[in-house]
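Students often ask why inverse folding is considered easier than folding. One informal answer: many sequences map to the same fold, so there is more than one right answer. In these notes we will look at a single instance of the problem. The structure comes first.
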C-alpha cells in the first residue's frame, strides 16, 4: 500500500509538470492556431539558464529563479518577434515549418555553446529531501509541484477571465480579424501569450530539473512531445483541458508501470499510444471545441 501511494504522488508530480508546459502549447494554439514545436526547447534553455545562474555564477537560488523566469520570457517573446511575427499572414504551414526550424536552431545552438556533455542540475532548497507520512517516504517535490501548478493555473485563469489583457486574448482566439478591427492590439496580445507560456515552461523546467537532474541539449524533446500530447488529450486550445490532460498522462505513465512493471522500458510509448487513441475516438480531446478551418 505504501508503494501505491508513492506512485500516486509521483504521478501527480509528473502530471503537474506536463500540465505547466502543456498550457504554453495550448495558449499559442488558441491564439495563432500554431503548434509551437520550439516550446520544448524553451524548456531546455530555461534549464541551462538555471544551471549557469546557480552553479557557474553562484547566484542564490531564490534570486536565480527570478532571473531565469525573466530570461525565458524574453527568449519566448524574441522567438515570436523574430520567427513568427514576420510570417503571421502567411499560410499556416509556414508558421509550423518556422517553429520546427527554431526548435532545431535552439538545439544545435545549445550543443555548440553548452556542448553535448550532460550536466547536473543544481538542487534548490530542500525539494529533494524526503518526508515520512504514515511510513511512506515522499519527496517534498511531490507536494510542492501540484500545489505550485494549481496556484499558477488559478493566477492564469484570473488573468484570462478578469483582466483587459485576458479579454484581448479571448477575443483574438475567437476571431483574429474581428478583434483586430475592434482595436485589439494584436502584437501585444500575442507577445503576452508567448510570455505567459514561456514563464510556465520555465517553472516546469526548474521543477523538472529537481525530479530528473540531468541537462543536455535535447532534454526538452521528449517532455515537449509529451506535453503537446497532454494538450491534445485535454483539447488543444483549452487551458483547463491542458491541466487535465497533463495529469491524466502523468498518472497513466506511472500507474501502468506500477501495475505491470515489465512495461517500464516502454513508458515513453504510452504517451504516443494515448495520442493515437484520442485522435481516433475523440479527435477534439476531452474539452476541445470543434473548429472548422476556413479555406
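Output (designed amino acids):
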Amino acid at each position: 500500500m505504501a508503494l501505491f501511494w508513492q506512485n500516486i504522488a509521483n504521478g501527480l508530480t509528473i502530471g503537474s509538470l506536463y500540465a505547466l508546459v502543456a498550457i504554453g502549447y495550448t495558449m499559442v494554439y488558441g491564439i495563432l492556431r500554431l503548434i509551437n514545436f520550439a516550446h520544448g526547447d524553451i524548456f531546455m534553455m530555461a534549464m541551462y539558464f538555471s544551471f549557469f545562474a546557480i552553479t557557474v555564477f553562484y547566484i542564490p537560488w531564490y534570486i536565480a529563479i527570478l532571473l531565469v523566469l525573466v530570461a525565458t520570457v524574453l527568449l519566448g517573446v524574441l522567438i515570436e518577434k523574430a520567427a513568427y511575427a514576420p510570417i503571421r499572414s502567411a499560410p499556416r504551414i509556414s508558421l509550423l515549418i518556422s517553429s520546427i526550424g527554431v526548435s532545431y536552431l535552439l538545439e544545435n545552438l545549445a550543443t555548440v555553446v553548452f556542448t553535448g556533455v550532460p550536466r547536473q542540475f543544481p538542487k534548490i532548497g530542500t525539494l529533494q529531501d524526503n518526508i515520512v507520512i504514515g511510513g511512506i517516504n515522499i519527496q517534498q517535490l511531490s507536494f510542492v509541484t501540484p500545489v505550485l501548478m494549481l496556484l499558477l493555473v488559478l493566477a492564469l485563469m484570473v488573468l484570462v477571465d478578469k483582466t483587459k489583457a485576458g479579454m484581448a486574448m479571448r477575443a483574438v482566439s475567437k476571431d483574429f480579424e474581428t478583434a483586430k478591427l475592434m482595436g485589439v492590439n494584436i502584437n501585444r496580445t500575442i507577445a503576452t501569450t508567448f510570455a505567459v507560456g514561456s514563464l510556465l515552461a520555465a517553472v516546469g523546467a526548474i521543477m523538472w530539473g529537481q525530479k530528473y537532474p540531468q541537462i543536455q541539449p535535447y532534454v526538452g524533446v521528449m517532455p515537449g512531445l509529451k506535453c503537446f500530447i497532454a494538450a491534445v488529450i485535454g483539447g488543444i486550445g483549452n487551458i483547463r483541458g491542458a491541466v487535465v490532460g497533463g495529469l491524466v498522462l502523468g498518472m497513466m505513465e506511472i500507474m501502468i508501470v506500477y501495475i505491470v512493471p515489465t512495461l517500464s522500458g516502454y513508458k515513453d510509448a504510452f504517451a504516443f499510444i494515448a495520442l493515437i487513441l484520442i485522435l481516433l475516438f475523440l479527435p477534439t480531446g476531452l474539452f476541445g471545441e470543434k473548429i472548422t478551418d476556413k479555406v
